[in-house]
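Database export, one record per block. Field names are fixed; values are copied verbatim from the stored entry.
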Amino acid sequence: MTELMPILLVEDNPDDEALTRRALKRNRIANPLVVARDGVEALDYLFARGCHAGRDVRIQPSIILLDLKLPRMDGLEVLRQMKADERTRQLPVTVLTTSVEETDVQSSYRLGANSYIRKPVDYDQFIEVLRQLGTYWLVLNVPPGGRRT
């Protein structure tokens, strides 16, 4: 059996992290969840540096769930840097944020985000959003190289 590729959640809010964990579990999404609590840590994970030095960079996330409002480095800068690098350019990124700013939506897509979703405040709606994301990105979508996660 093929090992499941991780999901990278870039989120600084512990409540949103816990909610995401519950939603993944409730939707029976078994991919391991890696959490980066700021933009610097997210890039360190992706490029195997800092506290993630020595990590096998061939194992990249099947999907990145990226908040925009982050400490140390915001989500737009994370997106800019990962899409500028050949090693991470094709990784799918879903911006999952509370931002309702149209400039954030436009900037996210301009920088290469694959989708932009406003976090639902309602628990059941959030569960459904994660179910649909999991179905699309982890089951239906065929990534470059054709490898399913």
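Remark 1: The first strand starts at residue 7 and ends at 10.
Remark 2: The mean pLDDT is 92.
End of record.
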